[in-house]
Amino acid sequence: GRPRVGDLGLLAFERGELSCLYLLGVDPPTSGAGTIIAHAAFLTDALREQADVVLPAEAYPEKEGAVTHPDGRIQRVRRAVRHIGETRDERQVLDDLASRIGLAVTS
Description:
25% of the residues lie in helices and 21% in strands.
């Protein structure tokens, strides 16, 4: 079948075509030369061993917002507990990171 967009990024990283890979809630690929920045709610062995930077992400009960399901339904998600430690909203982290590397972010 046809590769998904996320798969194309992983393939490019593994071939050395990308110098940095930003992962949101998934384990890193097993190969590839470059910097791996991971944003994860749980520190797995793979992240500990392979990621250059791991940023704390929200666990599901800490999230606020909406989820769009594959069939198009939109579900509201309400935060059940406060953020723990240095965890912040994913959007805040992405906005800050983009700003620091000089990218304009629009909402």
